[in-house]
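Progress note, sequence design subtask.
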């Protein structure tokens, strides 16, 4: 009898194994269960010992309000009437009182019944920040990095086919920062001391472009995912060779799977490449191991090009995992572009040997016309809704690169999809800036996990052109006020070891820049002076935009440069209370709302007028005085910014390829603020946006300041085809024709069309030309400041070039 029971048990297990094997071959991938939407949010001041277990909440007085996910706690507090809108006036300062609170998100959900062999995974797109996750009162895991996705295996924690409860308890980062010992040099420029050890967007602690808004929340989506026993775990497409002339391309796809052993030697993978409905490649491989590589060679392939240089061609790259019975067990679909990106970089710029910093795509040198991409919102759960509109600003301005600044979060997949589609190269900083980060093993291990996660998520995007270690961390060591004892940045463990080691393993074909700007060993040995940097951030005195600081800057590539400009009146009236709009100053004292919008990290600092005073100084230089009328002041400030930004781009473009690119600061604000952005938080364009839009055309004619007693009239062509047309230059005030002729500039080239006589006095020249069937126009402001504001406006109106509809 006992023997029969044993035999029966063994037979039942064999049948169960057969069911598992069959299920692994027949179960289609299940759609994830979204947990976005309505949650509950409980909150309380953190006690001496932080609460990490929901069971401890019974002994604490907590309050509970409705919440939405994706979300930030401030949005839920605002919806509940507990705080005033932090976007308006000085209200953001009141959020300081909430920085010591803990938060608990709670949601009930139904879990599906799992098939044999399946696993349940709770996935979070972003948890901000120090958190413990609980399912049905059992600990699922912890998270201490806002910036990356998190997954927890909850197979043994959920009630399959029944109701479940998930809770996420979040601790305040400002108190969590006290648990970490800082090094002697961790006192940053903008980044605060409390920010360096905790992986959270640096700008949230306060920056010169963003408020102090130390948020918390589940800021990206949440899903319950069902994982089949047979599935892809990674698919990576890599282009290894491109012949631009023949369009012959070599690439490979590396894949990894999780596979039941009974599928070995029987299951297979199939990969296809399709473009415009036509299959360009199909290949299969039997799985003798869980991972492999398939090499692909294509003839007359369509290449991916950055904006202006050709079509950003995309292929659908599909992978199928096929079981022994022919059933498709899993599918991986990506859009890839066939291109090779290189960065021709030298370690130092010397007087007799210009430093190199040039992007090369498919063997073609690219002149970069770019913008810095800063946070889309101080509350990041609102980022995703703004991707399309913000990207349209970039494309309408005809940028071919965005630099994702290191004080931000890592943008989500949709952002990179849009860059792929529009031919926008992406320079991606890792999320660090203006500080010296810990060098100890625990921090380095956390950074290694973050970098790996981000690289694996983004590396298949053709738009991603460069990884940069950080924003201004090398420079920050030079600013540390410990000269001559400042630290050698080339000994930094984060940017010189951890990040490049991850990239060497997981993304070895994409360029890497240790820091922006990069202080190489050669620069360090020369005393870390800016004159030796091939790539640099040019901020300088922020006075007259034709200061020698700008006009004689030696760097080959500038990746930050900007100028302050007042927002339109309609936006000022949205971002401030009625009482705060005007007067903006009383005597020499700015009102508190204008100070907050300047920005100011702590209210207790009192007046911090320097950022707003930039506008006053710059207006005074160009126009001789500062208007008292708000509308006149807005126009004057925006005019100065517009002329400055235009001048910077033209100065760099006219020296192509002696100079190789300019990434100006910046396209759009992430908070209602008075700033260098050319479009404000509400999407209202300043005059500078229209000026930049005009001088960033693929083919552009421009006039530079006098050289040897003449104005150079220059044509630049950022396409791979020759460009030619006619050009006329007239004096705006008199209508007198100064030049009439033609231009003929070669592919990706530059031509000095003519040297024009220097005009006497002050005025404006208008350049009318045709390019690729389009009638275009540009202008040049001649003479020395100060100009009369009314006269300048009259010249601008006569050109009929710029109509700022966003007043």
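Output:
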């Amino acid at each position: 009898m006992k023997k029969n029971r044993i035999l029966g048990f063994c037979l039942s297990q064999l049948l169960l194994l057969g069911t598992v094997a069959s299920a692994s071959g027949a179960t289609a991938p299940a759609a994830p269960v979204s947990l976005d939407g309505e949650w509950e949010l409980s909150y309380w001041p953190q006690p001496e010992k932080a609460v990490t277990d929901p069971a401890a909440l019974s002994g604490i007085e907590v309050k509970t309000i409705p919440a939405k996910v994706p979300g930030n706690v401030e949005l839920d507090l605002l919806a509940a009437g507990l705080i005033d809108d932090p976007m308006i006036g000085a209200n953001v300062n009141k959020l300081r009182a909430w920085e010591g609170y803990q938060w608990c998100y709670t949601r009930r959900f139904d879990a599906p019944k799992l098939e044999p062999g399946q696993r349940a995974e709770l996935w979070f797109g972003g948890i901000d920040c120090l958190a413990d996750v609980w399912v049905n009162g059992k600990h699922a895991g912890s998270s201490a990095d806002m910036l990356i996705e998190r997954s927890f295996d909850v197979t043994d924690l959920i009630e399959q086919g029944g109701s479940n409860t998930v809770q996420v308890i979040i601790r305040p980062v400002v108190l969590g920062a006290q648990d970490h010992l800082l090094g002697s040099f961790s006192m940053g420029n903008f980044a605060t001391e409390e920010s360096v050890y905790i992986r959270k967007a640096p700008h949230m602690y306060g920056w010169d472009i963003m408020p102090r808004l130390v948020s918390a929340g589940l800021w990206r989506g949440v899903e319950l995912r069902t994982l089949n026993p047979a599935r892809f775990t990674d698919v990576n497409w890599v282009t290894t060779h491109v012949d631009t002339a023949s369009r012959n391309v070599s690439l490979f796809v590396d894949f990894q799977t999780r596979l039941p052993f009974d599928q070995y030697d029987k299951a297979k993978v199939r990969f296809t490449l399709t473009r415009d409905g036509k299959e360009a490649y199909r290949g299969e491989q039997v799985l003798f191991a869980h991972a492999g590589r398939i090499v692909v060679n294509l003839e007359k392939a369509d290449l991916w090009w950055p904006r202006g240089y050709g079509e950003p061609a995309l292929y659908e790259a599909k992978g199928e995992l096929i079981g022994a019975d022919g059933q498709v067990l899993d599918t991986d679909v990506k859009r890839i572009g066939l291109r090779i990106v290189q960065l021709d970089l030298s370690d130092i710029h010397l007087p007799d040997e210009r430093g190199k910093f040039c992007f090369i795509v498919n063997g073609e040198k690219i002149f970069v016309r770019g913008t810095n991409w800063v946070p889309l919102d101080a509350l990041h759960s609102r980022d995703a809704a703004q991707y399309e509109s913000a990207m349209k600003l970039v494309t309408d301005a005809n940028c071919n690169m965005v630099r994702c600044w290191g004080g931000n979060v890592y943008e989500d997949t949709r952002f990179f999809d849009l860059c792929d589609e529009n031919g926008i190269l992406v320079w991606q900083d890792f999320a660090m800036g203006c500080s010296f980060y810990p060098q100890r093993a625990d921090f380095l291990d956390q950074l290694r996990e973050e970098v790996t996660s981000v690289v694996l998520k983004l590396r298949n995007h053709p738009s991603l052109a460069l990884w940069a270690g950080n924003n201004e961390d090398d420079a920050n060591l030079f600013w540390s006020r410990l000269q001559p004892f400042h630290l050698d940045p080339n000994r930094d463990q984060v940017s010189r070891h951890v990040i490049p080691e991850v990239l060497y393993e997981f993304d070895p074909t994409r360029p890497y820049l240790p820091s922006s700007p990069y202080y190489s060993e050669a620069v360090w040995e020369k005393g870390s002076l800016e004159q030796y940097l091939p790539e640099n951030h040019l901020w300088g005195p922020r006075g007259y935009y034709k200061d020698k600081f700008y006009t004689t800057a030696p760097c080959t590539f500038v990746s930050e440069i900007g100028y302050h400009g007042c927002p339109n009146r309609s936006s000022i009236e949205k971002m401030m209370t009625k009482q705060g709009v005007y007067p903006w100053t009383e005597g020499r004292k700015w009102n508190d709302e204008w100070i907050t919008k300047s920005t100011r990290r702590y209210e207790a600092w009192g007046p911090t007028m320097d950022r707003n005073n930039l506008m006053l100084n710059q207006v005074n230089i160009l126009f001789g005085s500062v208007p008292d009328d708000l509308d006149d002041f807005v126009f004057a400030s925006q005019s100065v910014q517009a002329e400055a930004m235009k001048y910077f781009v033209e100065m760099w473009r006219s020296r192509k390829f002696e100079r190789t690119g300019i990434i100006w600061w910046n396209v759009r604000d992430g908070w209602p603020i008075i700033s260098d952005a050319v479009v404000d938080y509400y999407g209202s364009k300043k005059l500078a946006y229209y000026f930049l839009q005009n001088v960033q055309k693929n083919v552009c004619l421009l006039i530079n300041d006098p050289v040897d007693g003449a104005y150079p009239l220059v044509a630049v062509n950022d396409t791979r085809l020759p460009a030619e047309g006619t050009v006329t230059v007239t004096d705006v005030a008199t209508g007198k024709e100064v030049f009439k002729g033609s231009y003929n500039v070669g592919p990706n080239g530059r031509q000095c069309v003519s040297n024009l006589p220097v005009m006497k006095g002050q005025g404006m020249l208008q350049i009318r030309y045709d390019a690729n069937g389009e009638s275009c126009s540009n202008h040049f402001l001649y003479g020395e400041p100060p100009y009369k504001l009314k006269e300048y406006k009259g010249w601008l109106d006569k050109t009929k070039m710029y109509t700022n509809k966003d007043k």
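The two ends are 92 Å apart (CA to CA). Work on this subtask will continue into the next period as scheduled.
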